[in-house]
Design brief:
The chain has 271 residues and is of the alpha/beta class. It is built from eleven helices and six strands. It has a six-stranded mixed sheet, sandwiched between helices. Helix 5 packs parallel to helix 7 and helix 10 (225-245) crosses helix 11. The longest helix is centred in the last third of the chain and has 21 residues, at 225-245. Bound molecules: adenosine-5'-triphosphate. Adenosine-5'-triphosphate binds next to helix 3, helix 8 and helix 10. Residues 55-190 form the AAA+ ATPase domain. GO terms for molecular function: ATP binding; ATP hydrolysis activity. This is p-loop containing nucleoside triphosphate hydrolase protein. Keywords: ATP-binding, Hydrolase, Nucleotide-binding.
């Protein structure tokens, strides 16, 4: 059988509290996935009263890179006690003709064997590209994915989270009800979220008293969470190298380190 080098089965440890500024997304996802945990369902017969269960097989997260789509998928898995199988669309598509389809079937087979399980398809646009726009080989890949999604029983065993920066090129069959039922936009963090992302990424660091996260948040408009994470690492590196040069100074990250990091910082995502 085809072995997908890049698909990792894991139980992630990301919690909602690790993610800044996306409470509305959390609420939406919790309402969609509340059926996972049957013990928690407040009104167990509600589905029956409303004529049977809703088919909720997956959600699509879309928006600029580095804005927590992967983290969100991992938090859903952690908070609902599910396994997590992560697959990169670009890895799947670079295989030989026929192999991608086999690999997709293999992913679903592995997920069912590890149920309850979330399959996270990162860069789903590379496998779910509109059949009109892709070459012949794309045809079967999309069909296989649709077929596998249709074959799973909603919320019983496998739930799918897709992520993309290009929702516009996805095959329309993929994004309609019964497949990716909900489409959730994950945008760039606002000022308050940026402040929290700074906080999350510096909480284990010795910060000097002059570090003002509000000022940093205001000065990083247009940055993604991944940009801010990168900026924090650069500031720490600068602090370490300063400390190496003058070990008599206190071992801490100062505002000047963040400012120097900011001077060389170009956000990857401009709104
Ligand atoms: P891509 O589209 O490039 O795959 P993504 O949207 O999946 O990106 P993640 O991989 O989830 O982005 O985020 C990258 C890193 O950025 C995270 O590991 C985290 O450290 C940081 N990050 C991004 N957004 C947030 C956020 N809202 N709260 C906390 N950390 C964040």
């Amino acid at each position: 059988p085809t072995v997908l080098q890049d698909s990792v089965l894991e139980v992630p440890k990301v919690r909602w509290t690790d993610i800044a500024g996306l409470d509305h997304v959390r609420q939406l996802l919790e309402s969609i996935t509340s059926g996972f945990n049957t013990d928690c369902i407040q009104y167990p017969n509600l589905d029956t009263k409303f004529g049977g269960p809703q088919s909720r097989k997956g959600v699509l997260l879309y928006g600029p890179p580095g804005c927590a789509k992967t983290l969100i998928a991992q938090a859903v898995a952690t908070e609902s006690n599910q396994n997590f199988l992560a697959v990169k669309g670009s890895e799947l598509i670079k295989m030989y003709i026929g192999e991608s389809e086999r690999a997709i079937r293999d992913v679903f087979r592995r997920a069912r064997a590890a149920k309850p399980c979330i399959i996270f398809f990162d860069e789903i646009d590379s496998i779910g590209k509109s059949r009109e726009k892709s070459q012949d080989s794309g045809l079967n890949v999309v069909a296989t994915l649709l077929n596998e999604m249709d074959g799973i029983e909603a919320l019983k065993e496998v739930f799918i989270i897709g992520a993309t920066n290009r929702p516009d090129i996805l095959d329309s069959a993929l994004i309609r009800t019964g497949r990716f039922d909900a489409h959730i936009h994950i945008g760039l963090p606002n000022r308050e979220a940026r402040r929290q992302i700074f906080q999350i990424n510096t909480r284990k660091r010795p910060l000097a008293g002059d570090v003002d996260l509000d000022v940093l948040a205001s000065g990083t408009e247009g940055s993604s969470g991944a940009d801010i994470k990168g900026l924090c690492s650069v500031a720490v590196e600068l602090a370490i190298s300063d400390y190496e040069k003058s070990p008599e100074s206190p071992p801490e990250v100062r505002m000047c380190h963040f400012q120097r990091a900011l001077d060389t910082h170009v956000p990857h995502t401009i709104k």
